Q: What sequence folds into this?
């Protein structure tokens, strides 16, 4: 490990000094990020126990902080697994401590967001956070915590134990923070709506500081298959990860080391790779020099015979749930969804899901409405920089009979064990060629489907207009010619009108 | 009118038989317009087009046409007259909107083509601006004036060539020629100088390009009274063409007959007059020159006189108005030029 000769700072201290990188840039953004991080933790907590999530969020006004910012109390309650009381202080009071260091698709990546929210609340209001959790067992534990920023340790202010007579399970987090709700409100409501779209099996309830109730009701109990944990794939490792594995490995030769710590490496593959890299199979990994480790990493990336990572560690939403979600939030006249086969970038598996919807509750804005999701999290900021937006604007939509003037919504969902975010703020997806290609292919597929719909629509429109012309003018021709011919009775044009209809049907 | 009724019956019967009504009419496309040397006018060729309601693009124009026929029928049976502008607005009363005046004009022209008569015959008239003056007694046939007579010298400003006059009967005249004049100023001068008496003439003001009613009226004067027609215009390509249209008709009216007066004479102002009479002139501009080249290619301009004048215009590159004779005194044109030219073009 690199030795630092400088003043060592704790992880909490580091994030305290650099809270911008986690998204807490200003009071309006901060309140949005805090709500978002806690909801994501809550959803993960319920889903990992295969329970359809029910999440209750309440933001209440506490007082004025300055001319522009107010103090709010944020409360987020979930029906998840609950947390073992022994872990509660660390889980909420210690940065970079958590359950998210294994490789599987989860919403949070660093186990950081929730704690950053609490840390932000603490430094803006100096109030402790209250965590209450029950696991369905006999007792409910309530902790009042603060974070010792310099030591990165939880400070327990108070602790209470209650009898859990209803076998309640879940976690309630409550803390105060400074923010600007009025400015953040549109984004927060967007966030709820879009979260509901890709989590149609979740109940979301939000009570805002004005007492307004927003409710997003689940319409299915079907949930996507939860992801399985996997080992890191050789293509995705770096020197740091190799060094950590070497430190903890119980194995004393390279063959066993490779077989047991890497995804898609078995006896034979390990053997072949070691020959390829000219490393003795019985060499003790702990004896590798720094240079050898670097070379090992390069060789792992160069070796062509590793199978691509399998996608069991991913949990895409699936076409059915995607449809249900879009239906529920947009109620469109037409929609098409498509799930791509798993693909990989730099050893990380990922799956792209896309959807396109037309009409219904989708407004006409003069532009496509783009919904971006990563691991079922809506991405709301920095739209222009996102790879999906670039792919969408590069596509020739006119070819698919679609124009930005139409009420069109496009949805792109990427799920991966490592979403290629461009920033820690988790706002937009980097432009990786593999990812770009998958998004483009997915969009082309749904675009073809909407093209069919549009053609059909055009045809129906044309027929309707055609029939309209005949039913408007034929009676007039009848009327005028009757008078011209000096007749009394008008000719019967019903037959002709009927034949026009039939004629139209034949054409279709 | 008989033919309007026939058209209605044809459409009615097709509808009544459960057929999409359709009609044939001569095509008015440029390829189907040709010059008939015998008739000395433009006529339509053999090609015809079919308008059928089965074709969605024809439905609206067909309805408009049926309406126009219906409307004209109402006009003629009620003995009322109307104008193209009127037609355009009247359509709106029947929820038969025309996109613009042009569209409704086209439909009226279609109706003319189908029936082979001009719109004046079904009582749709242009805005009148031309006039006639001189010793001709006419008898009105329009409602309320039937049998009433008028001598066309009774009003010193002339009498408008309108629906009432065009439908009147010619009773008697002492005139032995018609002089058609392009411009109002000269028309008034001629009346003031008693040209009608001095030269025994009926004076017709065309007011620029002669309206179709006026062309038809001149033809009637020529044919029914058997008197020659002399035309005086400005000395430029446009004036020349005003005379030509009176004589040989226009391509736009190729579907109609009896609008032209083949034996009428263009008496001036010629390009050679500009030279011979040393008239004050203006230069011919680019548009004038372009017009001259067009006229050179026009099948109506075959007569040696016309070809000579076009060439002279192109050579001298000058033009002169009728008023240019005023440099020799106000009455010079009447006393000197007019008799000379009448003699020359006799």
A:
């Amino acid at each position: 490990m690199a030795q630092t000769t400088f003043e060592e700072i704790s992880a909490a201290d580091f994030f305290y000094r650099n809270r911008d990188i986690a998204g807490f840039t200003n009071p309006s953004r901060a309140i949005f990020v805090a709500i978002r991080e806690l909801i994501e933790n809550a959803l993960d907590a319920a889903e990992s126990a295969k329970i359809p999530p029910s999440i209750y969020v309440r933001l209440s006004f506490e007082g004025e902080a300055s001319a522009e910012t107010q103090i709010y109390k944020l409360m987020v309650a979930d029906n998840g697994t609950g947390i073992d009381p022994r872990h509660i202080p660390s889980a909420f009071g210690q940065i970079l401590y958590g359950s998210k260091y294994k490789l599987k698709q989860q919403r949070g990546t660093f186990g950081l967001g929730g704690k950053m929210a609490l840390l932000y609340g603490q430094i803006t209001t100096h109030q402790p956070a209250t965590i209450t959790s029950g696991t369905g067992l006999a007792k409910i534990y309530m902790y009042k915590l603060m974070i010792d920023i310099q030591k990165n340790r939880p400070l327990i202010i108070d602790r209470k134990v209650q009898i859990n007579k209803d076998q309640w399970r879940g976690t309630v987090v409550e803390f105060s923070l400074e923010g600007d709700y009025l400015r953040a409100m549109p984004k927060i409501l967007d966030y709820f709506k879009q979260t509901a779209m890709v989590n149609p099996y979740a109940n979301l309830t939000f009570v805002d500081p004005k007492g307004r109730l927003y409710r997003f009701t689940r319409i299915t109990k079907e949930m996507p298959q939860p992801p399985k944990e996997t080992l890191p794939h050789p293509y995705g490792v770096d020197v740091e990860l190799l060094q950590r594995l070497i430190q903890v490995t119980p194995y004393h030769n390279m063959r066993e080391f490779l077989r047991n710590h890497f995804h898609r490496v078995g006896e034979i593959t390990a053997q072949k790779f070691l020959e390829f890299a000219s490393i003795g199979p019985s060499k003790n990994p702990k004896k590798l020099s720094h240079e050898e480790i670097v070379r090992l990493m390069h060789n792992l990336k160069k070796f062509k015979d590793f199978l691509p990572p399998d996608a069991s560690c991913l949990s895409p939403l699936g076409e059915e749930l995607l449809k249900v979600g879009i239906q529920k939030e947009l109620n469109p006249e037409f929609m098409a969804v498509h799930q791509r086969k798993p693909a990989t970038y730099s050893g990380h598996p990922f799956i792209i899901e896309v959807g396109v919807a037309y009409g219904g509750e989708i407004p006409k804005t003069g532009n496509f409405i783009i919904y971006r999701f990563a691991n079922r999290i809506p991405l709301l900021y920095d739209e222009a920089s996102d790879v999906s937006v670039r792919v969408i604007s590069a596509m020739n939509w006119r070819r698919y009979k679609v124009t930005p003037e139409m009420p069109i919504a496009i949805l792109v969902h990427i799920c991966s064990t490592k979403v290629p975010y461009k920033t820690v703020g988790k706002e937009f997806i980097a432009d990786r060629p593999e990812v770009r290609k998958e998004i483009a292919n997915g969009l082309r597929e749904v675009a073809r489907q909407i093209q069919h719909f549009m053609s059909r629509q055009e045809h129906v429109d044309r027929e309707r207009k055609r029939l309209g012309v005949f039913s408007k003018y034929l009676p007039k021709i009848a009327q005028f010619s009757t008078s011209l011919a000096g007749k009394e009775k008008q000719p019967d044009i019903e037959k002709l009108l009927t034949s026009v209809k039939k004629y139209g049907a034949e054409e279709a | 009118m008989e033919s309007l009724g026939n058209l209605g019956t044809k459409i009615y019967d097709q509808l009544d038989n459960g057929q999409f009504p359709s009609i044939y009419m001569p095509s008015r496309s440029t390829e189907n317009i040709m010059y008939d040397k015998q008739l000395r006018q433009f006529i339509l060729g053999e090609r015809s087009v079919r308008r059928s309601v089965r074709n969605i693009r024809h439905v609206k124009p067909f309805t408009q046409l049926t309406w126009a026929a219906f409307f004209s029928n109402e006009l003629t049976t009620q003995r009322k007259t109307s104008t193209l502008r009127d037609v355009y607005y009247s359509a709106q009363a029947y929820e038969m909107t025309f996109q613009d005046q042009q569209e409704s004009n086209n439909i009226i022209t279609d109706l003319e083509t189908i029936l082979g008569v001009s719109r004046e015959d079904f009582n749709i008239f242009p805005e009148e601006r031309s006039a006639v003056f001189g010793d001709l007694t006419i008898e009105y046939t329009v409602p309320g004036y039937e049998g009433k007579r008028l001598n066309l010298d009774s009003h010193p400003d002339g009498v408008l060539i309108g629906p009432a006059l065009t439908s009147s009967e010619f009773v008697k005249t002492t005139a032995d020629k018609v002089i058609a004049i392009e411009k109002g100023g000269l028309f008034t001068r001629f009346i003031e100088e008693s040209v009608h008496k001095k030269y025994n003439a009926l004076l017709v003001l065309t007011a620029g390009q002669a309206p179709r009613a006026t062309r038809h009226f001149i033809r009637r004067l020529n044919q029914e009274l058997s008197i020659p027609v002399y035309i005086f215009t400005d000395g430029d390509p446009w004036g020349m063409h005003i005379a030509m249209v009176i004589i040989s008709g226009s391509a736009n009216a190729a579907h109609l007959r009896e609008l032209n007066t083949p034996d009428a004479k263009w008496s001036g102002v010629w390009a050679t007059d500009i030279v011979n009479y040393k008239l004050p002139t203006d230069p011919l501009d680019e548009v004038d020159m372009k017009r001259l080249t067009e006229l050179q290619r026009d099948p109506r301009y075959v007569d040696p006189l016309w070809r000579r004048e076009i060439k002279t215009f192109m050579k001298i590159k000058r033009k002169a108005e009728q008023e240019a004779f005023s440099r020799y005194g106000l009455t010079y044109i009447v006393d000197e030029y007019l008799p000379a030219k009448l003699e020359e073009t006799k």
Notes: The interface with chain B takes residues 466, 469-470, 473-474, 476-478, 480-487, 491-493, 495-496 of chain A (CB under 8 Å). Chain A is about 40% helix and 20% strand. The longest strand of chain A covers residues 54-64.
